[in-house]
Amino acid sequence: MIYQNNTFIGREDELSVLEKCYASNGFQFITITGRDGIGKTALIRQFCKGKKAILFSAIKSDAVNNLKALSRAVSKSLYKEVRDLVTFKSMDSALEFIHRLAEKGREVVVIDNYDDLVSSIEGLPELIKTYLSHIFPKRNIMLILTGSKQFMDSQTFGMDPVSIHLENLSFSEMRDSFRTFQDYDLVTLYAMTGGDPNVLRHVDPDRSIRDNIDSLCLSSDGIMFDLPLRRMMSHLRSPEAYCSLLTAISGGLTPMKDIVSRTSMGSSAACSTYLSNLVDIGIVEKEVPFHERNSR
Description:
This protein has 15 helices and five strands. By secondary structure, the chain is of the alpha/beta class. It has three domains: 12-165, Rossmann fold (3-Layer(aba) Sandwich), CATH 3.40.50.300; 171-218, no CATH class; 227-287.
């Protein structure tokens, strides 16, 4: 059985930012970005503990099912044992209801996986922009949206949010959660996982590092066995093009012109777009040699 480590790890700086926003009077708007599995949902759940909050996670479905899920989330925030206290037929009615709730005090509203909600509800970005610009600022609301950085950067909210972008955990954050391992094993663990929270939660601290490597990396059902391919398949279109890029890079081709010549991209601009997407989901990193940093 794969070990599931449900202990919340690190993110002290990010929690501090959220707590400062919560302590401020008036309307606060925060976006939390990062790839899938980086810990956005875990962060907001940790932050919302002990607070009056509407915690809604959008799903990859249609508007009807997402509105049902939002209705259940709002109902649960009012009475934990009741899931169908309110029913929303539109996103506008849901936002107006939340607006009225905030008349009674501080209200934390979280829309997790905002990308999926936008995909299911036509005209949502314009509606959210209207509420951000003209309606929510009149209330004591803390609105948090989570999603991919690439998607959030493409949105026009009408105001600048407090932005939190999540990367992999640092070595010190990881070390504090695996005190049973020796220093050498901790370095090995970090080199193997890169601090990926979604991988670290599968590490069994009661087993040796060698056994963890066998189960996570070498076993066909291990979380890391085909992790890059699964990330590409779930996040990106045209996985064949991305596999072609990765093949070129793994073969030692790192300058842009060399990568373009080995693939069927056709232009540096197209290649650059594909590479940026790979950087966003954490599969490749971009590094500039020191002697080229001051040149164009």
